[in-house]
Amino acid sequence: MFRSQFASFQSRRHFSGGHFDKYKSITNYRNTTRLLGGIVTVNVVGFVLWNIDRIPSDIKDRISAETRKRMPNWLKANATNSLRNFREGRWWTLLTCSFSHRDPNHLIGNMFSLYTFGTVFAYLPRGIPIVATITLGSALSASGADLAIQAARETPGYEQASLGASGVVMGLGTAAAALRRRFSRMKLHVSVRQNRKADTLKPPLGLHSLVSSPYHYFFYYQDTSLGPFCICMMKDRVLDTPPISGARLSELFSIFSVYEQNSIRFLMIDT
Fold first, then answer.
1. Where is the Peptidase S54 rhomboid domain (predicted)?
2. Assigned domain for 94 exists
3. Is 90 strand, coil or helix?
4. Do 136 and 201 contact (CB within 8 A), yes or no?
5. Is residue 27 part of a domain?
6. Is residue 72 part of a domain?
7. Domains: count for the chain
8. Helix (H) or strand (E) run with residue 16 in it
9. Which residues of 86-96 are buried (b: 16+ CB within 10 A; e: fewer)?
10. Is the pLDDT of residue 185 over 70?
11. What is the rounded CA–CA span in Å between residue 208 and residue 142?
């Protein structure tokens, strides 16, 4: 009888007594934050490569002068999103541009936001694949939208290029805010319905592509610097904190998101 009860417990895995196993929750949190730390590290390495001439001389002297000279052009060809790179077959730039920063303020703002929004998913049972999916999906959708805008505004003799993780930040931030409505049930435990399929707070994985794509138009091409904190969840109090904007506020881009029983509705308003 004990074995049958133990087997039944094993079949339910970590869902026991209506709660998510505390040990596995903490372990999942640590692994997800390690993934976020790895993403931040990759972005920092990209920033160092862009500013290789500004690093301390004792480290810079270990790198050949020829390598330092070629580095900017190599990064432009492999770590920026542009029509030229795409047409010449360097399709990987759709992804690598989101891990590339030249300006320190740009890097610090994006990495702080990315890590802050990403930790929301660290409490979920499958935090690592969720963060990875949203990160990659947001990067690709934002780059695709950026290329479409570049093609529409292409001017002979003038080459446009973009870089940075702003699209990824918008995707993570919006998905995290959409979960905020039910976040009070998470903490270290995830409430589940007894004798029914576990309710594990399914994240809106498709929402990131709808937000990170228009982000480039509303904030990069319309002379706005609202930054990654521009998400305003006001209708349903999905996000309880007020929006934080940059120095110049020429537009307000509000996203009203509702997450109810696996259905997502969102509205973008430009005022």
1. 89-181
2. yes
3. coil
4. no
5. yes
6. yes
7. 1
8. strand 15-16
9. beeebeebbeb
10. no
11. 9
